[in-house]
């Protein structure tokens, strides 16, 4: 049984809303305090966008959402919480008042993270009577998609608090990065501020528009940064001689007066208005929700590729996918007959020239459903590392109906038979109520080192046998055991000539 955590969110704006969505979609309960009169609607919109993005990111059933409650007072929201996330405006006065109230009302074991972008833990602690449980947990927007959280503690914190925080964050798919020492703006905002400062100068000096600066990022180095960051990218840029050569070649330029990093242009009303005008010209054809959707779809695409390549943030997504499977396996629906273990939203890139899901994607959906089944019966990385796996030796697919982009597909799975070494699975792909395909698959258990068939190991064999026995009470599904329909073959060439 996976323990459901009790989360509290104080502040539910851009960042608080993102935390709330991530917690809920991971299956944990969230209690919210935000005095904004529209807080429920604003948070509801963020959750809807986040759920849409998660359906595109994770090709599997999501656990039932946790319970969301709104409270009129901060004390009621944080009562009984395991984790409280503070995301109120970035003003030290407000942070002190709110964090003091949280630390006074939350249980002694609660972890209290502040989303602050720039304040050090000691800045926060200076205005709090009970600072030991309050630390910096700085996320990135959109919080429900980007895994990073910078974790910073100060001298007043309990020992080991960041390690505890890391463990909780891993359960909601986030990567805690412990910052070794307190500094203003942690690590990432130092870097972001440097680029932001330079961007403001380039607009101020009339060198580039907001759109041109964004193009300079998104068509070039921004793409590199998402997957390798700064130093690994430059190591490669040093060629065969590597990083040392890169520094020799480009290091001296750092002393040239290229940048204006120590200064910031006067943010006059005129400059702010000009940046606003350029930004409207660049992005004003899309409303905020459309821009958020475009951003989320692009991020999901990157994350999916990084996951396929087992690289960077994609590893966090893969780990979260396993965590979510665990949560779903605890839910009653995992025991239904037939099993429903796999769901996927059809990306536009899966469509063919007819505008329908192309044929090999049907097999991909079935293959992923088979993997979900194998995980369900206990075939995990440890089992495979011990030299045991399954190979598919035969497949018969019936393509029954068209599937459009963005369709949410679910797969029902029956065990039609099993013996010591073989497993016969039957999948039905459903688009709502419509059966759009069926697939029947024979899988062979193998000893991968010896390269030959071998019996399933216990307890996998017992779980498969139990499911096979339960599923044998079901009528044989339509299409099971079928072969491709015969049509008359053309006469042989010689006969045709005669
Ligand atoms: N917006 C961003 O890109 C990022 C912001 N952050 C940090 O997150 C925190 C929040 O920023 P945003 O979400 O952008 O601000 P926001 O203005 O969107 O949201 C702040 C929310 O706090 C609520 N609030 C105000 N006083 C409150 C109180 N006393 N108790 C409870 N709720 C209260 C407001 O009603 C509002 O909904 C800040 O510390 C900021 O530095 C961190 C990462 C990125
Ligand atoms: C602008 N900002 C300092 C609030 C940005 C962040 O803190 C992180 C982000 O999401 O870019």
From TrEMBL:
The keyword Transport does not apply. One of its GO terms (molecular function) is carnitine 3-dehydrogenase activity. Keywords: Cytoplasm, NAD, Oxidoreductase. Residues 7-179 form the 3-hydroxyacyl-CoA dehydrogenase NAD binding domain. NAD(+) binds at residues 11-16. Pfam families: 3HCDH, 3HCDH_N, 4HBT_2. It comes from the Bacteria. It is found in: Cytoplasm. Homodimer. This is L-carnitine dehydrogenase. It comes from Jannaschia rubra. The lineage of its organism: Bacteria, Pseudomonadati, Pseudomonadota, Alphaproteobacteria, Rhodobacterales.
